[in-house]
Each structure stands twice: as C-alpha cells, then as structure tokens.
C-alpha cells in the first residue's frame, strides 16, 4: 500500500470520519486504511523489516511514548547495530545509552534476548511467536507484534491502541469489555489484509482516538491505571542507576546523600537492583560490566 509519509511532529490531530456503530467490516477496514494512507506517521522502525531493529523498537515502545522512542531508537541502533554487538556489550554501556527511556529492566531484558538469539539460534531471530514469548521481557502480545512487523505474519494480537479502536467502534454502549470479545473481531478484520500495514494503521488510529475521545480503554476488563511516577520506587531506581553511571564507584553513603531519599528506602531498592543484576552492593556499589 502506497502512502504519503506524514511526520509526527505537530500538535494537529487528524479528524476521524464518522462511522455507524457498529460499522460493517468493509466500512471499518476502509476507514482505518484511508486514515493511515492520509495521516500515517513516518517512524524509523517502520522503514525496516530487519528483525533485530523491530525487536529493539517493540521493547522500547513498551510503556513509553512514541516521541521519546523516536529520539532514543536511532541512538541505540547506532551504538548496538545488531544482535552480536548488543550481546557482548558491557551492561553499563547499554544502560548509559538507554538513559531517558525509563524501565531500565527492559534494557537488561533486551540484552538477554540478544544473547539468547546468538547462543541458541545462530544469530537469527525465531519466526515463531510461541518461542519469542519465552524470551525475557517479551509476552505474547509483543511476540506477535514482532512477528507481524518483522515477518509480516498474520498473527492476531491486542495491545493498548488496538484495544482502544475496537472498543470505540464496536462496544460503544458496553460498560465492560473483555479482550476475549475483541479477539474474534480482530481476527476477522485482519483476514486478507497485509499484516504489517494493517497493524500500523490500527495503532495510528488508536493514538488519534487517545487525543480525541474519552479513553475507551477504561472500559476494558484488562485496564489498569499506571501508578504515579513522582515519589515512586521506580523513579528512585532510575535515579540510582543514573548516579552510578555518572559517577561509578561512589561510596554508598555518598550515593544515598545524592538521591536525597531515606537511607532504608535506598538500601532496599539497591538490594532489589542487585538481585536483578543491575548493581553489586557493598561499600562501593558499581554497575556490573557483564
């Protein structure tokens, strides 16, 4: 499908043509694809089918806004261009490049995925969502998404933007919607379509709906509200890692002072970071190098 790339750089939100609710499958497909043809976002990871680059983008896009990923993605690819390079990189270097993305454990999982691909699959990402779903940090939805975008496989899956689209157009009067009710519709809508184009189109429409209507996902049984970031352990975890990357080898007391947080809380979080392989604790905690 040919389309004119539109950069996602401005505040303008494209209008969505009205549809009867629920729309026929033909009407729905036409609207989704027309919207993508006219307003689809030009994103770096959409210009490639390289499995490694698709994997990186999918892990980055977990719980992170597209705008932030658009900045970090080319930097990460430049530093670690393929599975072997990422697999052997010191963790400190991976985390340093990852800074600003949040959820640092995703960087650790991404490197573990690279090592598994190199060590168990000869450097080639498996074209099987069931296998990919067993990789660190990759659930069933992400595994299917990778297969759709890297291999153009007609896999059926639901993520937040896809869920938003189907709830808005097909369950407008239903107070609670389960993913099990959406899956048959998602399967029917995908049938006969180019999976890569179709899913890009659905996800873009979902982002438009997020900005133009009251969030339909609040009516999903799978909906969970993300906890506040300010004052959370997650923010302190990120701050600790940033401080260690900026000044490795600092004394534990200095590290605690620099966080500005209570000693017991910082020590508890450092303990969890150590268990996950981010740091070694002691008098001089430092980022692991492998």
Task: Give an overview of the whole structure.
A hairpin with a 5-residue loop joins strand 1 and strand 2. With about 290 residues, this protein is mostly helical. The chain has a two-stranded antiparallel sheet with strand order 1-2. It contains 14 helices and two strands. About 30% of the residues are buried. The chain has three domains: about 80 residues, Orthogonal Bundle (Endonuclease Iii, domain 2); about 100 residues, Endonuclease III, domain 1 (Orthogonal Bundle); about 55 residues, Winged helix-like DNA-binding domain superfamily/Winged helix DNA-binding domain (Arc Repressor Mutant, subunit A, Orthogonal Bundle).
Topology of this structure?
Blueprint lengths: L24 H15 L11 H10 L5 H14 L3 H6 L2 H8 L6 H16 L8 H4 L7 H12 L8 H11 L8 H12 L4 H18 L20 H14 L5 H8 L3 H13 L3 E2 L5 E2 L3
Antiparallel strand pairs: 1-2
């Amino acid at each position: 499908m040919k389309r004119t790339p539109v950069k996602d750089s401005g505040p303008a939100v494209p209008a969505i043509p009205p549809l009867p609710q629920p729309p026929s499958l033909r009407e729905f497909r036409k609207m989704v694809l027309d919207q993508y043809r006219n307003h689809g976002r030009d994103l770096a990871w959409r210009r490639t089918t390289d499995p490694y680059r698709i994997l990186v983008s999918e892990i980055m896009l977990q719980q992170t806004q597209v705008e932030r990923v658009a900045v970090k993605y080319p930097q990460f690819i430049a530093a670690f261009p393929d599975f072997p390079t990422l697999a052997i990189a010191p963790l400190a270097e991976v985390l340093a490049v990852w800074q600003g993305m949040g959820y640092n454990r995703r960087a650790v999982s991404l490197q573990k995925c690279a090592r598994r691909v190199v060590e168990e699959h000869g450097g080639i990402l498996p074209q099987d969502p069931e296998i990919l779903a067993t990789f660190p940090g990759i659930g069933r939805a992400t595994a299917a998404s990778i297969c759709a975008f890297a291999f153009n496989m007609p896999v059926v899956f639901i993520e937040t933007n896809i869920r938003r689209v189907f709830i808005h157009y097909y369950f407008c009067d239903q107070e609670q919607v389960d993913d099990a009710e959406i899956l048959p519709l998602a399967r029917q809508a995908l049938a006969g379509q180019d999976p890569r184009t179709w899913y890009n189109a659905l996800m873009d429409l979902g982002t438009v709906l997020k900005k133009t209507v009251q969030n339909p996902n609040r009516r999903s049984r799978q909906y969970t509200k993300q906890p506040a970031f300010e004052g959370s352990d997650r923010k302190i975890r990120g701050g600790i890692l940033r401080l260690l990357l900026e000044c490795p080898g600092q004394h534990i007391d200095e590290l605690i002072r620099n966080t500005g947080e209570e000693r017991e809380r910082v020590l508890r979080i450092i303990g969890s970071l150590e268990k996950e392989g981010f740091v070694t604790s002691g008098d001089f905690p430092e980022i692991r190098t492998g």
